[in-house]
């Protein structure tokens, strides 16, 4: 069988603002057969999206395809004129973006946008296009397929919008669809549904697809073959089965190793039965003015209690909007709690950070998800780490220098980064600095708010290892907030499952494999496994799914 | 789009410097030096009548001709630079420092302080600037300190609005939350966390406001309400030599050109400030 796609020795070049040219794709060759699903996997910056884009003859602003051929169904996308490429895009090749929410025009109905491709290319009459769209909506198991097209993008959920973006891509009967991290922004329970829908339509319409992702477990469910990329070069190409069972390249092995569950083994009970480090009692947090019933307008956290023992870790899991971050912000005193007590190290804390003493602030640190916004881009690493040292410990310049070096050693960064600015560091390095700043205060408890969500699997595994190591050395406790259950399982002694602002269940290590509450069961079963047959074998009670997921 | 390799100087320093910006900078520097050393540069005393004719033409010895009393125009322009540049610089410094500090503080503190400050300064902003200037000069008389304070008062609200809108965006960043729950003071928050992030646009705004102030000062002086005789800034020079217009005398044209060169070059400079090159690994 002839190959649908043949990429031969592809090179892409970028020009930096100093006029220097950098090769970002260094001679990649690969093929895709008709109806085959191929996944591009690699860390951020590995060039996986850039290669996928060249299939449409497109290179980002400042980049250009500098060499090689990209044959798609008999056309070389590199040498075609822009006009000829435009005729192919949408009819032969289609693209599903990472963030469907950003890809839809909020001012037009979904149906108008889905059938726009057929209008531009004159493929069929509007009535026929609408019929075809409804057929696709049904195939993608969207609710009310006949009516959903009349809604506007803000009236459907994120998971639905992602499937609608797929319908938009499929309407022109393409031979090849590019999925660019389509489920990365979704919750695990939603991801299951979206992946199922994608898999079904790909099979039904016999479409070849390129699936770009950094999540090996997700890719395993959908791809026939996997291309492992790193710094613009293919490291390994093989069938999904081969890659998962016998990876040859060291990078692929490290990728797989990052997935190996590393259960948190340290189960030593607290040495002394003294008071817990942090105790939160019946905390309610909300937004907006207080209503007549004495509750805030929107209650984000409803009467949640929790306890963190000294030297132990508490995990808080739940989907987006369940109130887990609000809870952390209330504990840190950023967003004052409406009701409830916070007892930290035997003393009751004020609900707002402004009234807490300096040593209370020092002992309870919070680390945020986005290191990009949590580090001041205008300051050097030295200044960022030096400030808490001067502020809390009153260290002079010399003492600070010594301590900054020690902190950089602790988070495994070279000492030379101290003169750099955050913009010059990678995502993982920035997150380490973000964490080192919290360590600089010598805290007793660190609240980690989704600190690994913006990182890829390999970097996440390294950060988690680092956290464990520091805990052993410094006797810290963590409250670890995440939507990623595997991360939480890897580091926490106790796990709280939250749903719509309420605590559903508290799971301790012994019972961890068998959550009792139906929602916890649903959540835990939705985490993708490396096993390629996991998605097909997964059975979830449809009623339960409907109850708990607002799809 | 990346072929702008021409006019690149200073990439060695890690900055991209534009040729137009360099020209603007040279002219601004020229006037700054003149303003500083005018007293040593003038060929004649500003009050000395050196020409038997009035509105005399340009000729060697009187390089820019003579004014309506036969005084040396070159000396008067050089000394006028002192008043125009000096008063405007003092006024713009007061206006921007006050406005930017208040703007950042309002963005960080929010709540009532922000509302009250914003409404008061909005009210000030709604008064037409020339009318305000005329009113103050009519009420307390014209002197250089009064002029400086009036001009700065007129431009505080603009600087406040500008810096506040920038600071509001910075204030939503998580590093602000981190600093706040570290227990940092207001002065640290605005000085060390916000200011370094907005300093570029704030400096550009300062340059623009300087231009406005030069023009307003020249306008007031032209109306006879600005710098008073025996001193004269460029606006006053245009006014006193207005009678030379029918004769095409250089005395009326030269101060106008001086105002234009200063304002235009400041504009060129701030539109083409050096930009930092992010790609540090360049050879």
Description:
The complex is a heterodimer of chains A (551) and B (283). Chain A is of the alpha/beta class. Chain A has 2 domains: 3-248, Rossmann fold, CATH 3.40.50.300; 278-516, Rossmann fold (3-Layer(aba) Sandwich), CATH 3.40.50.300. Helices cover 36% and strands 25% of the residues of chain A. The mean pLDDT of chain A is 85. Helix content of chain B is 67%, strand content 1%. Chain B has 9 helices and 2 strands, in the order E-H-H-H-H-H-H-H-H-H-E. The longest helix of chain B is centred in the first third of the chain and has 37 residues, at 73-109. Classes of the chains: A alpha/beta (551), B mainly alpha (283). Chains A and B meet through helix 15 of A and helix 6 and helix 7 of B.
Topology at a glance:
The complex is a heterodimer of chains A (551) and B (283).
Chain A: E1 3-15, E2 21-33, E3 37-41, H1 48-54, E4 63-72, E5 75-76, H2 82-88, E6 93-96, H3 100-103, H4 110-114, H5 116-121, H6 126-139, H7 158-170, E7 176-180, H8 188-205, E8 208-213, H9 216-222, E9 225-230, E10 233-239, H10 240-245, H11 250-257, E11 278-290, E12 296-308, E13 314-317, H12 324-332, E14 339-344, E15 347-349, H13 358-363, E16 364-367, H14 371-374, H15 381-393, H16 397-410, H17 427-440, E17 445-449, H18 457-474, E18 477-482, H19 485-491, E19 494-499, E20 502-507, H20 518-525, H21 534-537, H22 542-548
Parallel strand pairs in A: 3-8, 3-9, 6-7, 7-8, 13-18, 13-19, 16-17, 17-18
Antiparallel strand pairs in A: 1-2, 1-4, 4-5, 9-10, 11-12, 11-14, 14-15, 19-20
Chain B: E1 15-16, H1 19-41, H2 73-109, H3 111-125, H4 129-140, H5 144-171, H6 174-182, H7 186-222, H8 234-240, H9 250-271, E2 275-276
Antiparallel strand pairs in B: 1-2
